[in-house]
Each structure stands twice: as structure tokens, then as C-alpha cells.
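User: Structure please.
Assistant: Input sequence and predicted structure:
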Amino acid sequence: MSQQAPPPPAGFPYPPMPQGPAGMPYGGPLPAPGYGGYPPPPPVRKSKAPKIIGIVVGSLVAIVVALFALVMVFGNPVVTADQVEQQIAQQYGVAPTAVSCPSSLEGEVGAQITCTGTDAGQTTSLLVQVTSVEGDTVNFSITPQ
């Protein structure tokens, strides 16, 4: 008669794993993710809405800037209130601080503003009206009221 081989040990063909610290099975606690343990979770799909919103806002800003540039290049020239005040002060021989204009003067024939000037305690209204525009030069008349 022939002899039979003993049955294989548990966990055949691998030897059983020893107990880990504090009685944890199979060699200890689980490794932290990303350190050879479990594979990392699948990436979270990001929404495309912020990218689309960014493109739309960027396009609108570009359009506004382009329109502003066109107006600046092809629009009417403007004489600032400070420039008008200095011209009035020079023409009437008073200090520029004695003249006050409410706004800039648009470089369009017929455009007008009313400024006030003070000299020797007397306040006078001055009508400033554009008489002609030659390129970037705005010619205007100053008439006391």
C-alpha cells in the first residue's frame, strides 16, 4: 500500500501571515492611501461653467475696451473744465482759482457750458461756446452774461 501525503497547510501555497501589533490581523493597520495601499480615488470631474463664464466675461470686456478705443480715436475732442478755466483766467487776467466750470466742453460746433468767474468779489456768468473744431483743436468763444 502506498502512503498519502499530508494535507497542505492553511493558505497554501503561501505561509500564513503573522498577527500584527495589538492583535490586528494580517500584519497591522491598513496603509494610508497613496502609499502602496489602495489605488487613489478617480478624479472628480470639474464643471465647465466657470470656464465658459470666464470666456464670456473676457469677450465682453474686450468689446467694451475696443469700443472705448474707437470712441477715443474717432470721437470728438474734449476740452476739460480745467483747460477752459485756465483759458478764461488768462483772457480776463484773473487767477484760475477764481473761475469755475461745471463740466468739460465737448468738441462739437455749438456745444456750450456756462462757467462762473469771480473778480473783486463780483461773480459773473460766462457762456463758453464752441465755434469751430480743427482736428484735435477746439476753438471756443467766451461771452459774459
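The chain has two helices and six strands.
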